[in-house]
Amino acid sequence: MRPFKNRDIISIKDFTREEIDYILEKSNEMEVHYKSDTPSMLLAGKILGSLFFEPSTRTRLSFESAMHKLGGRVISVSNPEFSSAAKGENLSDTISCIQSYCDVIVIRHKLEGSSMLAAEVSNVPIICGGSGTKEHPTQALLDLLTIKNEFEKIDGLKIGLAGDLKYGRTVKSLAYALSLYNNIELYFISPPLLKMRDDVLKSLNDSGIRYHEYENVEPILSKLDVLYATRIQKERFPDPSEYQKVSGSYRFDKKLFERLKPKDTFIIMHPLPRVNEIGYEVDKMPYARYFKQAYYGVLVRMALLALVLGKI
Ligand code: CP
């Protein structure tokens, strides 16, 4: 394994399976600090720069919670309208300055390659909290932790990724991560307009992973171990009329699950936020894991901060 200290976390593709399994193991070990009434002092004296140039609830707050749980402190840009980006400052200049104020930076930005650009100018580790439509590596790690803790394995599972596969970054990072595991079968479920991009499919082909494409979940739901649903990314459509064509085109509700009878061990995940793709009544069904998934986000981010700051 390459050392984690001072490492940038830009893409899930930068990790080997051995490294991912190590991060998942360390994430579970963080639960003792998470549950303790007295904060751990593991990151005492360290400061996280939390730079979110796009909206976020879970990623930003779970990173900040992770830092607080380990005794560190946080400085943040949570509304870019109140940062100098609104006056026209470019990302490179922002990072060149902020790196002097903190020991690690998490950044979310709408531009593809924004985290990579930040890493090129920063002397402190950069963690991607979501970049463009392709990368959300820490989400993929918490998704894997959810699956691993649920099934006690990741190998051999049948996983459906459903919804906006074209613009959603979580599904792409997760598909790449799953391609490192053995005997995984992926089912891409989406309207034709929101199909998984060809470059991702080509890369999965190259890694030898088996995948199938469907327009709806009915024919395969009973085979799945996991259904990972996603929101249609309205804000990323270049043409609003294209969004109108697919808006509301899929929904996973209680009636669907009652009719299609998933496996006893089946779970439904979602990176959140949801809009209307999972019915609220599903929250009370035994399959729902999306709020547990959000909790695992804190553990994974505690482990990542401690690793890149050289404290594990
Ligand atoms: N899953 C996720 O990235 O959620 P937020 O957009 O709320 O951070």
Blueprint of the fold:
Layout: H1 17-29, H2 31-35, E1 47-52, H3 58-69, E2 73-77, H4 91-98, E3 104-109, H5 114-121, E4 126-131, H6 137-151, E5 158-162, H7 169-178, E6 185-189, H8 198-207, E7 210-214, E8 226-229, H9 240-246, H10 254-260, E9 267-269, H11 290-308
Helix pairs in contact: 1-6, 1-11, 3-11, 4-5, 6-7, 6-11
The structure holds phosphoric acid mono(formamide)ester.
Phosphoric acid mono(formamide)ester (CP) binds at residues 56-59, 130, 139, 271-273.
Shape: globular
Q: Tell me, what is the CATH class of the largest domain?
A: Alpha Beta
Which small-molecule ligands are present, each listed once? phosphoric acid mono(formamide)ester
**Unreliable segments of 5+ consecutive residues:** none
Mean pLDDT: 95
What is the N-to-C order of secondary-structure elements (H for helix, E for strand)? HHEHEHEHEHEHEHEEHHEH
Tally of discrete structural domains? 2
> What would you give as the CATH superfamily of the largest domain?
Aspartate/ornithine carbamoyltransferase
Q: Helix count, per DSSP?
A: 11
What is the tally of beta strands? 9
Instruction: Examine the coordinates and then state which fold CATH places here, giving the name of the CATH topology of the largest domain.
Output: Rossmann fold
Strand order of the largest sheet: 7-6-5-8-9
- Give the N-terminus to C-terminus distance in angstroms: 14 Å
Radius of gyration, in Å, reads 19 Å
Structure description:
There is one protein chain. The chain is α/β, with parallel strands linked by helices and 312 residues long. The protein has two domains: 12-135 and 297-308, Rossmann fold (3-Layer(aba) Sandwich), CATH 3.40.50.1370; 137-294, 3-Layer(aba) Sandwich (Rossmann fold). Helix content is 37%, strand content 14%. The protein has helices at 17-29, 31-35, 58-69, 91-98, 114-121, 137-151, 169-178, 198-207, 240-246, 254-260, 290-308, and strands at 47-52, 73-77, 104-109, 126-131, 158-162, 185-189, 210-214, 226-229, 267-269. The strands form two sheets. Strands 7-6-5-8-9 form a five-stranded parallel β-sheet, with no helix packed on it. α7 (169-178) links the parallel β5 and β6. The protein is globular. The mean pLDDT is 95. Bound molecules: phosphoric acid mono(formamide)ester. Phosphoric acid mono(formamide)ester (CP) binds at residues 56-59, 130, 139, 271-273.
